[in-house]
Amino acid sequence: MNTSRLIKTAAAIATLIAAATFSTSASANPFFLFGPLQPLPPAPVERTTPGSQDRSEAPANFHRQVIDYRTHEAPGTIVIDTPNTHLYFVLGNGKAIRYGIGVGREGFTWSGTQTISRKAEWPDWTPPAEMIARQPYLPRYMAGGPGNPLGARAMYLGNTIYRIHGTNDPSTIGGRVSSGCIRLTNEDVVDLYNRVNVGTKVVVLPLQARSVAVR
């Protein structure tokens, strides 16, 4: 074999080796062909805002509506119908706005007359000592926001530990699940919050004889 043919044969072998190396590297490491992969942008975070909840999750009788309502209470009064899990905002002239609510679970209902002593938007939550004693796993403090169990608004009742507040779990409306607080959907609690003032009278009706009277 002459020198020219040796050179051509060597060149051909080198080309085959290079092609095989390129193919192996590309299949084992896609960066070889396309460069470093760019990170995907973060998925958008959905935040709960007042009015964003679907009221169709609750039965129709828990949807906010104006109804006929006879009462001796003055317009502007809140009446909590504990047995039927409804809250009434008295309009006068035989009318009231009715809201669906969640109330205290077995052994945690109460009754009496209070006034709204404070109002807060997206309230912080500091569980009372009594609740922590029963549920020591609870956080000692939680900043207000969509993940806070007090929801979008809170109206504090007198000097008690109880509140009328929103909820991040609208499926609990109509249930008896709380430690004595009254909860509404975030949409409804914002509506009620905008109608009442500090000093508004709140009448809480008893759940039979098991309710504890709060003065």
CATH architecture field of the largest domain: Beta Barrel
The residue-averaged pLDDT reads: 80
Low-confidence stretches: 14-56
What is the fourth-level CATH superfamily of the largest domain? Answer: L,D-transpeptidase catalytic domain-like
Report how far apart the termini are. 114 Å
Radius of gyration: 32 Å
Total strands:
12
Estimate nothing, just give the exact number of structural domains.
2
User: Helical stretch count?
Assistant: 4
What percentage of residues falls in helices of 4 or more residues? 10-25%
Largest sheet: 10 strands, mixed
- Examine the coordinates and then state which fold CATH places here, giving the name of the CATH topology of the largest domain: L,D-transpeptidase catalytic domain-like
Give the CATH level 1 class of the largest domain: Mainly Beta
Backbone structural class: alpha/beta
**Net shape:** globular
Strand content: 25-35%
Order of helices and strands: HHEEEEEEHEEEEHEE
Task: Give a description of the structure.
This protein is α/β, with parallel strands linked by helices and 215 residues long. It folds into two domains: 3-34; 56-213, L,D-transpeptidase catalytic domain-like (Beta Barrel). The protein has helices spanning 3-28, 31-34, 129-134, 186-193; strands at residues 65-68, 78-81, 86-92, 95-100, 103-104, 110-121, 153-157, 163-165, 176-178, 182-183, 201-204, 212-213. Strands 1, 2, 3, 4, 6, 7, 8, 10, 11 and 12 form a ten-stranded mixed beta sheet that branches. A two-stranded parallel sheet has the order 5-9. The radius of gyration is 32 Å and the shape is globular.
